[in-house]
């Protein structure tokens, strides 16, 4: 049963990332190059590997929480995990598919709060799960500043 939970825990964020990545890939070579971007914009090839690693870390964190005994705090942690994953997923559509840079900035700001909330609740259940969210929080902080800069420049 634990292997099944582990595989499902990895598959959920990786699947969300793969779908969002498809939306991103369709626009990263067409619409995105036309935008004015800040000097700190990383090369496009960096995003795929970073997000893959982050989705794997998210999946491991989910597994560490999911395998703990049932409790109110665990239920809250699981709900927060799926809220932040949904916000993460929606961002790609807002930004890359629908070109709503401002709405994407609102979404990523709410996502940032959701990640912090998830990290804090995870820390009450599993310290390693919480630590696995730290690189994600840092990357989304960077992504939010990049989103804000692109919004201002365009």
UniProtKB/TrEMBL annotation:
InterPro entries: TspO/MBR-related_sf, TspO_MBR
Compartment(s) where it occurs, according to its Swiss-Prot or TrEMBL record: Membrane
GO biological process, one term: tetrapyrrole metabolic process
Endpoints of the signal sequence: 1-25
CDD domains, alphabetized: TSPO_MBR (cd15904)
GO cellular component, one term: membrane
Main location: membrane
This protein's UniProt keywords: Membrane, Signal, Transmembrane, Transmembrane helix
PANTHER family assigned to the protein according to its UniProt record, in alphabetical order: PERIPHERAL-TYPE BENZODIAZEPINE RECEPTOR (PTHR10057), TRANSLOCATOR PROTEIN (PTHR10057:SF0)
Protein known as: Tryptophan-rich sensory protein
Source organism of the structure: Filimonas effusa
